[in-house]
UniProtKB/TrEMBL annotation:
It comes from Prauserella flavalba. Its cofactor is FAD. Keywords: FAD, Flavoprotein, Oxidoreductase. This is Butyryl-CoA dehydrogenase. The lineage of its organism: Bacteria, Bacillati, Actinomycetota, Actinomycetes, Pseudonocardiales. Belongs to the acyl-CoA dehydrogenase family. PROSITE patterns: ACYL_COA_DH_2 (PS00073). The keyword Flavoprotein applies.
Length: 387
């Protein structure tokens, strides 16, 4: 089902988000990156007051009930200037909160969604483990039912917002069935006894978005916290496709920001007595940047438009994410080249865009894994990577 988008409403939202990004967050983005400062809680609540954290979540829990495209518009505008700010909108509108909204119980939605939408709390997804990154079905963390409770043991790695989030949507093995058959998901509050966190990773990019191991030492939660039991792994990863659309939009924003800065620069900077843009080699590079950015934008737009209350078309999402991730790396690299020596400085901000572009390409399924998914989804068959 294709959603009907109110173009005027989306345009107004874009203008507000762009103004907030430029006036409120752009002045702090570089410093937050340099100091690896986590996004301030007061600022998250401010985004909640603006309604940004619940744009695409149901109205009955405090959200806006708007199409996903509206949330992607806000993510893009914020991410052009400050990825940590955009991450808050990404996590609530396209991340694990969407899993709860679409697959969780009514009690779970009533308990967890309102504080997330207000900005009082955050929910992180915990899938990856030391030996289960791209091979997600190899995860070993266990969530075992014991009467009316669930006991969780194990550990997660590379968890974005790890140690910072208030709740975690934990993918875990719930019985002894092989592969994906045993995997389900359970909500775990960060203050449960037995919860602990590793040191925050010192990443190349993502510096305002904490990443840390999340450890579960006999953590007990009520059985009501189980979102999906074993045997429904396909549904879980179908919902995860929404997060991959958010990821693609973060990459789109990075590419668009690099393009915008380069368009200005090549018209202002002169060499050999004329603006850089008058050199044919510069024109060729600039044209390649535009082609790649717009291709990614159209693929994201198609994937986001082709579903309503259901789940996205997995092939369309894989095409959009892979294209956007690769685009952001290439376009930021071209931007650095066209800026010459200035592009290699921190002052012009391109190195920050380039560092972050690699992070978003790794998160949520690398371009290599996306290519495998593309062929699998195209042919309607799976491929065993273990043989």
């Amino acid at each position: 089902m294709t959603q009907v988008i109110d173009a005027d409403e989306q345009r107004a939202l874009k203008e507000v988000a762009a103004k907030v990004a430029l006036e409120r967050y752009a002045p702090h983005a570089e410093e937050w990156d340099r100091s690896r400062t986590a996004f301030p809680h007061d600022e998250r609540r401010y985004l909640g007051e603006l309604g940004f954290l619940g744009i695409a979540l149901p109205e009955r829990y405090g959200g806006g009930g708007a199409p996903l495209q509206h949330a992607l518009t806000v993510i893009e505008e914020l991410a052009k200037e400050c990825r940590p700010a955009a991450f808050q909108v990404f996590e609530s509108n396209t991340g694990p909160a969407q899993v709860v909204a679409r697959l969780g119980t009514e009690e779970q939605r009533e308990r967890f969604l309102p504080p997330i939408i207000r900005g009082d709390a955050t929910l992180a997804v915990a899938i990856s483990e030391p030996d289960a990154g791209s091979a997600a079905t190899d995860l070993k963390t266990k969530a075992v039912r014991e009467g009316d409770k669930v006991r969780i043991t194990g550990g997660k790695r590379w968890i974005s917002n790890g140690s910072e989030a208030d709740y975690y949507l934990v993918y875990a093995r719930m019985n002894d069935e092989p592969g994906s058959k045993a995997i389900g998901a359970v909500l775990v509050e960060a203050d449960r006894p037995g919860m602990s966190f590793g040191q925050r990773e010192k990443l190349m990019g993502f510096r305002g978005i904490p990443s840390a191991d999340v450890l579960f030492d006999d953590v007990v939660v009520p059985a009501e916290n189980v979102v999906l039991g074993p045997g429904r792994f396909r549904e879980l990863f179908g919902a995860f496709s929404i997060e991959r659309l958010g990821n693609a939009t973060m990459s789109l924003a990075i590419g668009q920001a690099a393009l915008d800065r380069t368009v200005r620069y090549v018209q202002e900077r002169t060499q050999f007595g004329k603006p850089l843009v008058e050199f044919q080699s510069v024109q060729m590079s600039l044209a390649d940047m535009v082609l790649q950015v717009e291709a990614a934008r159209l693929l994201i737009r198609r994937a986001a438009a082709d579903f309503g209350d259901g789940l996205p078309n997995s092939l369309e999402v894989s095409l959009a994410k892979c294209t956007a991730n690769e685009m952001a790396k290439k376009v930021t690299d071209l931007a650095i080249q066209l800026h010459g020596g200035n592009g290699y400085t921190e002052e012009f901000g391109l190195e920050r865009l380039h560092r972050d572009s690699h992070g978003w390409a790794l998160a949520g399924g690398t371009p290599a894994m996306q290519r495998i998914r593309i062929v699998s989804e195209l042919l309607g068959r799976s491929f065993d990577q273990r043989r």
